[in-house]
Amino acid sequence: MTTPALLPLSGRRIPPLNLGPPSFPHHRATLRLSEKFILLLILSAFITLCFGAFFFLPDSSKHKRFDLGLEDVLIPHVDASKGAKNPGVFLIHGPDEHRHREEEERLRNKIRADHEKALEEAKEKLKKSREEIRAEIQTEKNKVVQEMKAKEKKPLPPVPIPNLIGINGGDPEDNDIRKKREKIKEMMKHAWDNYRIYGWGHNELRPIARKGHSTNIFGSSQMGATIVDALDTLYIMGLHDEFRDGQKWIEDNLDFSVNSEVSVFEVNIRFIGGLLADYYLSGEEIFKIKAVQLAEKLLPAFNTPTGIPWAMVNLKSGVGRNWGWASAGSSILAEFGTLHMEFVHLSYLTGDPVYYKKVMHIRKLLQKMDRPNCLYPNYLNPRTGRWGQYHTSVGGLGDSFYEYLLKAWLMSDKTDHEARKMYDDAIEAIEKHLIKKSRGGLTFIGEWKNGHLEKKMGHLACFAGGMFALGADGSRTDKAGHYLELGAEIARTCHESYDRTALKLGPESFKFDGAVEAVAVRQAEKYYILRPEVIETYWYLWRFTHDPRYRQWGWEAALAIEKYCRVSGGFSGVKDVYSSTPTHDDVQQSFFLAETLKYLYLLFSSDDLLPLDHWVFNTEAHPLPVLHLANTTLSGNPAVR
Ligand code: DMJ
Predict the structure, then answer these.
(1) What digits encode the pLDDT tens for the residues 202-231?
(2) Strand partners of residue 452
(3) Which residues are catalytic (predicted)?
(4) Residue range 149-207, pLDDT digits in tens
(5) Which residues does 130 contact at the CB level (< 8 Å), separation at least 6?
(6) What angle separates helix 417-433 from helix 399-411, to the nearest 10 degrees?
(7) What is the signed CA dihedral for 544, 546, 547, 551, rounded to 10 degrees?
(8) Positive or negative CA dihedral for 131, 137, 140, 144?
(9) Burial letters for 614-625: b for 16+ Cβ neighbours within 10 Å, e otherwise?
């Protein structure tokens, strides 16, 4: 197997920063520093008390007794052989006694001097005006920030960068297609610019209220999820000023040492995946460093009796737990099963096998388990290692687990045969038990619930059309044609779910029940929140077939988003796709910029932009390069370094 070619990072760098955004106050640091000042005052009061106690309490030295701990520190040459009756207590005699008195006197003087100095300093501080104190705190804060930055800049060990092909360009020859691509870029600008104005630093944007938005998956902190998720799309579109703006925010503000409980899966796919893609595309070290810092914070989530990670982890304390709603304290298949790509890259880039071992442990454990009907249930208890409810889905709760089995194989330059086998086995069972054709001839993927097939397909499951197409090449017993066809059928069904609505946008899930086909029935399932899966499938099908219908369907979706989801402050989801007068949900999801607009842009680009034999997209559409690892290990083997 070939060793990956070395590509000079400098060749891929974009020009240095010129105009950064206004730097935001580092509230946490400021708070910490004010607390520090108060602590200083408390400390000096404490010293005063100790000092008083030292002078006014009876002279304990007369008793010639010293605790072992204290004497270890203060009097290193005590003769322990003269022993005491009580262990840990020693008596002092003769010349030692004199030496001890001198030592004690010296210490007393030192404490007196330190105390006076501390008092003087405290008095001086109190004489200062609020402004002066603030300025001092600010100076100290700057110092801390500088130190943190210096630490962050510490380079990680160099590794050969994989062959990065097709990170720019993709200009289509056709004029009409070029215009469509330009329009998608303009939509990205609109989404980004409004987030920049109204939501900067927040996780997401409320485009109608024109303010920041967040959900519990990101914890309680402002982690700039939209910035991290969107950057690689900006890069690919050639929006380099915006890219640098986001990079600067990440450099200055993205901090993972916060007391915040985040979803391990979500921050992995959006943050680690996004940062790694940014690193590979731009060559800027900061992205790699931030990705590794975050990954370290996720590791405590794996401290469970089985090594199956918790769904959530507190970034500061490392305490993990699962979602209250998940079957009897279970972890979720699509969550713990969607870490592989990012974690393999982390081990590759750091030379630290810890990440690789964590995800391989999950795989080995899953391989050993019995599976009802050869299907993987969505729930697994991380304490007992037993399945929870027997529900299986290619949509929510299961989806990207299957995707990552296939992509583990692709990302390993098709050498991870174990992953490919697990994918093939899983897909065969899914086809047998979950995939059906409706009376009207639409192929759909249902959900398995306790031995019964629910004839309902989620928008999330529509990604599977692209997955089947992507996995066609290399499938067992030469079934490539069959899987490409299956992918195309899923794409058609999902297109129907869009086409049968008033807004030409797809519902969250749709039924196949008697006369009802590809239509949502319950009100709670009629919303569209700017999700990407259907467009993602169009793009994969376009790449593999070049059938113009996929570009046409993608354009229909883009126009519908533009017409019904665009508002002056960005893009919003809609609550009912069957109502011709849409009500907005007032959320611009970060995946709209990471995925939906990226897949649309790629759909109207030529195939040489991010070619699929060199890049594998994580489940949040962040492209990661194929690693040619056949002759190496992932454990930091010096041969690769
Ligand atoms: C994205 O965050 C990812 O694609 C994930 O795998 C599931 N779906 C959302 C967007 O719909």
Answers:
(1) 999 999 999 999 999 999 999 999 999 999
(2) 449
(3) 266, 399, 508, 533
(4) 555 555 666 777 887 999 999 999 999 999 999 999 999 999 999 999 999 999 999 99
(5) none
(6) 150
(7) 100
(8) negative
(9) bbbbbbbbbbbb
Binding site, by residue number, is 619
Residues with CB under 6 A from ligand 1: 400, 460, 531-532, 591, 595, 619-620
Place of tokens 């883009």: 558
Taking a C-beta distance cutoff of 8 angstroms, is the pair 205, 213 a contact?
A: yes
Residue position matching structure tokens 């979803």: 263
Q: How far apart are CA 291 and CA 285, in angstroms?
A: 10
Residue nearest (by alpha carbon) to ligand 1 atom 6: 619
As a whole number of Å, the end-to-end CA separation of the chain is 16
Number of H helices, E strands in the chain: 21, 21
- 623 CA to centre of ligand 1 in angstroms: 15
**Cα–Cα distance for residue pair 310/341, rounded to 1 Å:** 18
Cβ neighbors of 572 (< 8 A, separation 6 or more) are 207, 208, 530, 565, 584, 585, 586, 587, 588
**Centroid of ligand 1 to alpha carbon of 525 (angstroms):** 17
Distance from the CA of 47 to the center of ligand 1, in angstroms?
Answer: 56
In the block, tokens 């920041």 appear at 212
